[in-house]
Design a protein that fits this description.
The protein has 333 residues and is of the alpha/beta class. The protein contains 12 helices and 12 strands. Helices cover 39% and strands 15% of the residues. A hairpin with a 4-residue loop joins strand 8 and strand 9. InterPro entries: ABC_transptr_periplasmic_BD, Bact_iron-sidero_bind.
């Protein structure tokens, strides 16, 4: 468990947490989903020379960090991946959604000793306290009701949401970790790759339009530009069909009778947990067969855990890997 002083701090924080729980009563998590589109907090005007203490302004206010965080807990899988991308020491995290258990394999040794503190809907606060974190990261859309309790455990920074704000979220986490330069370099490298691969795809297919469809256990969705996958397509310079260009809306919900709304030169589709039955119905529908026939076979089943739920630099680069492989262009690495 560490030195006696560390043990004492853990016990003290755990007592504080339990007192907070007693006062607050039953805690409820803000469940959120990747359809949330609220604006993310702007990066703060914290210390530009890397000195600590620094004050980080975030979606729930201001948090003072006395020193560079060494023991980090992240309470959303996209925030987990952001911490890993910035070489933070992640002692606790929420790995994924629903039955997609475990941290992604592509995170490798970086999460080999990371404690799972989920589920997403109700993080284990007692376990988090025993990990003795010096920074907790989450999102208002996920855990707004838990902010005070988390802050009683350790300094806590909240982004507003996930999904469309994934780049801004990396920037805010980088500020807390004094890794602004690393974040800027990695984002610039990703964007250069996206441009190179997108240019090659446009040249090969003659500037195609692209649709992304997701099958869920609720309404089937066409994902628009203000989404994780939509942002990647925009970064690649790939066009969307006329009905899919709204910069504010997150998705279009369609029934089987509205399949034609997904019409594009190239179609990508994914299936989220629970959406398999709906996917089979759509794919067996004559309207789907007609749609994909018009596309001359340019309809591709891609991984939901990468294209939809990763919401990370790692995931974005894997989407680019998929695009390079599918269209046989250079991967620009």
């Amino acid at each position: 468990m560490g030195t006696p002083n560390r043990v004492g701090r853990r016990r003290g924080r755990l007592v504080t947490l339990l007192l907070s729980l007693a006062v607050a009563g039953t805690l409820t998590a803000c469940g959120g989903s990747d359809t949330d589109t609220s604006q993310d907090a702007a990066p703060s005007g914290g210390s530009s020379d890397g000195a600590y203490p620094r004050t980080v302004t975030h979606d729930q206010g201001e948090t003072v960090l006395e020193a560079k965080p060494q023991r980090i807990v992240a309470l959303d899988n996209s925030l987990v991946e952001a911490v890993v991308a910035l070489d933070g020491n992640l002692v606790g995290g929420i790995s994924s959604y629903r039955d997609l258990g475990g941290f992604p394999e592509y995170l490798g040794d970086a999460v080999a000793e990371t404690e799972e503190v989920g589920p997403l809907e109700s993080p284990n606060l007692e376990l988090i306290a025993t990990l003795d974190p010096d920074l907790i990261i989450s999102a208002t859309v996920r855990h707004e009701d838990l902010y005070d309790q988390l802050s009683a455990i350790a300094p806590t920074v909240f982004v507003a949401t996930t999904g469309p704000t994934w780049k801004d979220n990396i920037g805010l986490i980088a500020e807390a970790l004094d890794e602004e330069d690393a974040a800027a370099e990695q984002l610039a490298a990703y964007e250069a790759r996206a441009t190179a691969i997108g240019t090659a795809v446009n040249e090969q297919l003659g500037d195609p339009t692209v649709s992304v469809v997701r099958f869920l256990d609720g309404p089937t969705r066409i994902y628009l530009p203000a989404t994780f996958s939509g942002i990647i397509l925009t970064d690649m310079g790939l066009a969307r069909p006329e009905n899919q260009r709204d910069p504010e809306e997150f998705n279009i919900e369609i029934s089987e009778e509205q399949i034609e709304q997904a019409d594009a030169d190239v179609l990508f589709y994914t299936s989220y947990s629970g959406g398999e039955e709906r996917r089979e119905r759509f794919l067996a529908n004559p309207l789907w067969e007609r749609l994909t026939a018009v596309q001359n076979g340019h309809a591709y089943d891609v991984r939901d855990e990468i294209w939809m739920t990763s919401v990370s630099l790692q995931g974005a680069n894997q989407v680019l890997d998929d695009m390079a492989e599918i269209f046989g262009v250079d991967d620009a690495r």
